[in-house]
Amino acid sequence: MSLVTMDMLVKRAWADGSCIPAFNVGSLEMIRGAIRAAEELDKPIIIQIAERLLKYSPLEYIGPAMVNAAKAAKVDVAVNMDHSSSFDVIEKALELGFTSVMYDGSTDPYEDNIIGTRRAYELASKYGASVEGELGLVGGSEDGLSDHGIKCTNPDLAHDFCEKTGVSALAIAIGNAHGDYPVAPELAFDILEEINHKAGKPLVLHGGSGLTDDDFRKAVSLGIAKINIGTASFKNVTGFAANYLASEGKHDYFGLNTAMTQGMYENALRHIKVFTGIE
User: Fold this and answer.
1) Which of 39, 59, 61, 195 has the greatest number of beta carbons closer than 10 A?
2) What does the alpha-carbon distance between residue 92 and residue 86 come to, in Å, rounded to a whole number?
3) Which one-letter DSSP state was computed for residue 59?
4) Which of 82, 143, 147, 180 is catalytic?
5) How far apart are CA 221 and CA 198, in angstroms?
6) CA–CA separation, 157 and 249 (whole Å)
């Protein structure tokens, strides 16, 4: 078991009707918690960080930690640069050993999205890495500071986009959104089914935090082979830290570190079980 590409993991999951959890991380505690859960359940995972969050966790610091943790893991782990539109960031991640990158051209005109994603594919190929693209608009943003609305992926464009860009996986919009949902989302499973029929590639669901377990299971049954979990993890880590600091007794950094790691571990454990059908 070792550091592997996203391509290998999602293809394998797509073929057997399962799903790879992709956990956004921002610290050593989160990296350790996610991998601990994966090892305990003997399931592969993806760890990733989004470009917008690098102001909190600089790539030159957290990137090597992610790659080294994946190399040392007892299960297969891919390391992904999530939601990036900067080729400087993408190339830096690849140089650090990331095995996949997600080029986000979803807010660009269709042809520009193809050009950017194809450029990312050609760059990643030089490093033996894989690429995820996005078609349609997933609501919200990775940092929770903006919302450009939701625009469902056009199923008729999905196959064309995948063919022209060379992506290993396609992130789609079916009513999902990043961050917390103000009201319970209604995913367009009919559109998902049509995209799955036409795209010919493993599909990715962003904005997984807040969806029900039944939503997840149905999405996986209709071709979703990678699901991103970010907000739920950050909230759980924060909650465990707050509970530790509010507890009686003496507090120190090491206790805080342990609490944060546990928060990530428990959230990762739950999602891995749901995504992979473990009761």
Assistant:
1) 195
2) 10
3) H
4) 82
5) 15
6) 59
CA proximity to 272, closest of 233, 235, 240, 237: 233
pLDDT digits (tens, 9 = 90+) for 74-90: 999 999 999 999 999 99
Query: What's this model's pTM, rounded to 2 decimal places?
Result: 0.92
The first and second tokens of residue 90, run together, are: 């993408």
Catalytic: 82? yes
What single letter denotes the amino acid at residue 110? Y
The SS3 of residue 99 is coil
Q: Phi and psi dihedrals of 24, rounded to 5?
A: -75, 135
Q: Each residue of 93-148: pLDDT tens digit?
A: 999 999 999 999 988 999 999 999 999 999 999 999 999 999 987 644 444 444 44
Beta strands per DSSP E along the chain: 20-24, 45-50, 77-84, 100-103, 130-135, 169-172, 203-205, 224-229
Q: Are 216 and 275 in contact (CB under 8 A)?
A: yes
